[in-house]
Automatic annotation (TrEMBL):
Keyword Transport found: no
Protein name per UniProt: DUF2029 domain-containing protein
Lineage start: Bacteria, Bacillati, Actinomycetota, Actinomycetes, Kitasatosporales
GO CC field: plasma membrane
Family: Belongs to the glycosyltransferase 87 family.
Length: 502
């Protein structure tokens, strides 16, 4: 059989599950650890007769396993470092907000978030309403017997169990968003930064709601998408940004009804959660928003490098104004990109870019913020090389921030990473995120290089927009989209593996 014929035979048909080991050199090389690339006659379907270990179930099991490894990584802190000196939890890189805020935000004293004042600097809980509810439910499940250290340990374990459920939800949603590419979710499941940062804070709750929203949009359910985006925004602010890419893509396709339906669902869902608290405890409800505006420059941002290099504090209102201006500029750039690209960008691509822009220009880039991007990266750019480059940068930053905190907190004979070294760690993780943004922008401008579209798909996560013709573009006329249901035409190239191998 000739090479071309083998390419045609191995190329996926419209209903086939895409095999990453046939498209991605890194995936093919990594598969050698478990027996090598999948064979031509392997049974890869998801229906009856294909066994219990479907791709989605494999992804979920791997994600839970990696989450468990992340919990193990926190064991030095769980055993003693959270309670015996500030720097120990940094030198072991196992810090978590969860046990500290159990006492610091009044959950140990059965205070009601937003309604009861907290002693100390923070008068009220500084988290959005649904995240506060998540924290409160975990405190209900934490028994009050024993020492406070034991209660903090149990509270962390309870939260870890709830966040593990969120991890499973995220894995299922990412694996099912692109119907024919469930194995791309292994990027999420095996991401080292995901395992390391999952139990630092409560971000996974909002990430799970956002992943579910993306799945609903891919299934052409704009109302369910909007409701989930509204709930996710009630848990963390960033999910509301996703409505921007949806607006742009609906504008280009001339389909306004799905966007308006989604917007209505988002507003109603957000209001249903927030309005009762805002009316009953207005001071507590506004704390999250005032805290976000009033907090100074913090770890992980380029603003901190500027502040440290100039050796003077930056004016917070000025930083807020410049950050907002930079975000507006980024959004204008994304608008031009969405409306002028040769083909309408995929939703996951624009969503990743807008969320990444929000993080990059922000005055704080906490290590757990990478959780916002990992599921989106698996959908936007499912290439192992680029993903691992980015993850290496984030892992190095994860180590860098804790070593820096150990350095500044270790007294007259500091041990750890000095300020200059930490600044290089910040630059590294900003550069890693910018690199992934750059390759995604390249995919948008050169759609023939987009691995998701190599089989003729338009936008597997695009829902009602998948395969829709363009109605409004700027500049040159757009290429007509090819729907995933169209028959395969001609040999595939650039599969990243020897076509002579099965």
């Amino acid at each position: 059989m000739t090479s071309v014929h083998r390419d045609v035979e191995d190329a996926p048909g419209p209903q086939d599950v895409v095999r990453p080991t046939r498209q991605d050199e890194v995936a093919a090389a990594g598969s050698e650890l478990i027996g090598g690339p999948v064979g031509r006659f392997a049974r890869l379907g998801t229906g009856p007769g294909y066994g219990w270990l479907t791709p989605v179930r494999v992804v979920v099991l791997v994600a839970i396993g990696m989450f468990a490894l992340g919990m193990v990584q926190k064991m030095p802190c769980y055993d003693w470092a959270w309670f015996q000196g500030a720097t120990s939890q940094y030198t072991h890189a196992c810090y978590s907000d969860i046990p500290h805020l159990y006492v610091g935000r009044g959950f140990a004293d059965d205070l009601v978030p937003y309604f009861d004042r907290i002693n100390g600097d923070m008068q009220y809980l500084e988290y959005p309403v649904l995240t506060g509810l998540f924290m409160e439910v975990a405190s209900w499940l934490t028994p009050h017997g024993g020492s406070m250290q034991h209660r903090e340990q149990v509270y962390w374990m309870v939260n870890a169990g709830m966040l593990m459920i969120c991890t499973a939800v995220i894995a299922v949603c990412v694996a099912r968003t692109h119907r024919r590419r469930p194995w791309d979710a292994l990027l999420l499941a095996l991401a080292p930064a995901f395992a390391l940062t999952s139990t630092i804070n409560w971000d996974l709750f909002a990430v799970a709601l956002t992943a579910a929203a993306m799945l609903m949009w891919s299934r052409s359910r704009p109302l369910a998408f909007g409701i989930l985006i509204g709930l996710a925004t009630a848990a963390k602010l960033y999910p509301v940004l996703i409505l921007g890419p949806v607006l742009l893509l609906c504008w280009r396709a001339g389909k306004w009804r799905p966007f308006l339906t989604a917007l209505l669902g988002a507003v109603v869902a957000w209001a249903a959660v927030n309005v009762p608290v805002a009316v009953g405890a207005s001071d507590g409800w506004t704390k999250f928003y005032t805290f976000s505006q009033e907090r100074g420059v913090d770890f992980g941002s380029f603003w901190l490098i500027i502040q440290q290099r100039t050796n003077k504090g930056l004016d917070v209102p000025m930083v807020n104004a410049v950050s907002e201006l930079l975000m507006v500029v980024a959004c204008l750039g994304l608008t031009a990109l969405a409306l002028m690209a040769p083909r309408r960008p995929r939703l996951a691509q624009l969503v990743f870019l807008v969320v990444a822009a929000f993080i990059l220009v922000n005055k704080v880039y906490s290590p757990q913020y990478v959780l916002w991007l990992i599921p989106l990266a698996a959908l936007a750019r499912p290439r192992w090389r680029d993903f691992l480059i980015w993850q290496a940068c984030e892992t190095m930053y994860f180590l860098g921030i804790w070593l820096y905190l150990a350095y500044i907190g270790s007294g007259p004979k500091p041990k750890g990473l000095p300020q200059d070294g930490y600044q290089w760690a910040i630059i590294l993780h900003l550069a890693g995120t910018l690199y992934l943004c750059a390759v995604i922008v390249r995919d948008i401008l050169m759609p023939e290089r987009d691995v998701v579209r190599k089989d003729g798909s338009d936008d597997p996560s695009g829902g009602v927009l998948d395969g829709a013709p363009d109605k409004f573009v700027l500049g040159a006329a757009a290429h007509p989209p090819r729907h995933a249901a169209q028959p395969y035409e001609g040999p595939y190239v650039d599969w990243g593996s020897d076509p002579g191998k099965p």
